[in-house]
Amino acid sequence: ESPRRSEESTCEGARSRRHRRGVMNSANKTTLRELDDEEEYLVSKGFEKVDLASCIKYLRMIDEHKLRRPDPVYRAASLVVNNQKRAKVQKQDLYAFMEQLAVAALDVNDVDTCDRTIDILRETFPSSSRVKRLEGMSLEAKGRVDDAVAVYDEVLEEFPSDQRAMKRRVAAFASAGRDKEAIDALAEYLDTFMADARAWERLAGMYQERGAYRQAVFCWEEVVAAEPSVHYHHRRLAECLYTLGTEEDLRAARKYYAAAVDMSNAGDVRALYGLALTDNRLRRKGKVKGNPEIAADGDGQVPVTELGQHAAGLLRKMYAAGEKIGASKPGLCEIVEGQLKTLLDA
User: Fold this and answer.
1) d(C-alpha 97, C-alpha 80), whole Å
2) What are the residues whose beta carbons fall under 8 Å from the beta carbon of 310, sequence distance 6 or more?
C-alpha cells in the first residue's frame, strides 16, 4: 500500500532534508528511510507535478534495494516511459524502467500495459531470456499456466541454470494448486541452488501442508544449517519433530525448542509452550515404560520436567509483566496458569 499522504509543509521539510543529504549517484548507497521519504513525496505531490527526476531516482532506489512496491512503481515507471524525451534517460536505463513497469503492471492487474511493454522489449531484444520470463509471467496472470511453464522450459533449455526461470516454474505450479508439480520443480531447483535458504523454507512448508513431516524435517535442518542463529528456524524444526511424536523425535524437538528459547532471550512464546508440551509428552512416555516418577532425556541425566517447569516459569513472568503494564487483558494470567497446570501435571 502507498504511504499516507502528509501535509504539504511536512513534505517540503522531508524534501529539504533529502537534498541536504545529497542526491544518489552510482557510487552512493541509499537507505530505506531515504526511499520511504522519496515515495512519500511522490505520492503526496510528485506524481501530480510529473516530477520525472524524482521518479527516476525512486525507481533506481527500488532496484537497488530489490523491493516490490507495485502501485508507486507502476505510477513512477509509467510517467518515465510515457515521457521519454522529457526524462532524458539513456536507452539502457529506459529498458530497465520498462521491465519494472511490466512487473508492476501485473501486480496492479493491468495486463494490457504489461503486454504492450513486453511487445516493445521483444522488438528490441527478440532472444532475451528476461523478456521471455516477462511473457511467462503475463501468461500466468491470464491463467495459462501450461503455456507459461512452456516458456520457462524454453528459457531453461537454452540457459539451464537460469535461477529466476526455475523459480517462476515453481510459482506457476503453486499458484494453480498443482502442489506435487510445484514440489518436484522446487526440489529440482534446489539440486542446483542448494544454498538458497528461502527455497528450503518454502519446500518445508509445502511438505508440511501435505503432511509429509519427515521430509519437512530434512528441509528445516538445511535451513538451520544455513542460518543457525535465527531462533524461529529452530522452533519450526522442533514443531515438525514434535508432530512426528516418536521418543527420538521428541528428544530432538526438546533440544531445538530449548535452542529457540535461548536464542530469543526467552521471548519466543511458542517455543516456551512447545518446550513445556514436549516435556509433558516425554514424561508420559516415561511413565508408560514403568518409571512413574521421573523420565530422563536422551542422555539419561536431566529430568524432562526441569526444562518444562523453567519454560512455565518464564511464561508466568511474561504474562504477569504484560498484565501489569496493560499490554495483556486482565485475567489472562489465570488462563495461562490453568494451561500450564494441565501441561505439567498431566
Assistant:
1) 8
2) none
62 φ, ψ (degrees, to nearest 5)? -60, -45
In this structure, which amino acid lies at residue 314? L
Three cell numbers at 45? 505531490
For 5, left (φ over 0), alpha (ψ -120 to 50), or beta? Answer: beta
In the chain the beta strands, taken as DSSP E runs, fall at none
Asked if 51 and 80 count as a contact pair (C-beta separation under 8 A), the reply is: no
Series of mean pLDDT values for 10-residue runs along the chain (346 residues): 37 39 50 95 96 96 94 97 92 95 96 97 94 97 96 95 95 95 97 96 96 97 96 97 94 94 92 90 68 49 64 83 70 79 68
| Beta-bridge partners for 296 | 303
| Three-state SS sequence of 217-245 | HHHHHHHHHHCCCCHHHHHHHHHHHHHHC
- Which residue, chain included where needed, has cell 532425556? 297
> What's this model's pTM, rounded to 2 decimal places?
0.79
Give every CB contact of residue 42 below 8 A, 6+ residues apart in sequence. Answer: 51, 54, 55, 58, 72, 75, 76
Q: What does the DSSP assignment read for 78-132?
A: HHHHHTHHHHT--HHHHHHHHHHHHHHHHHTT-HHHHHHHHHHHHHH-TT-HHHH
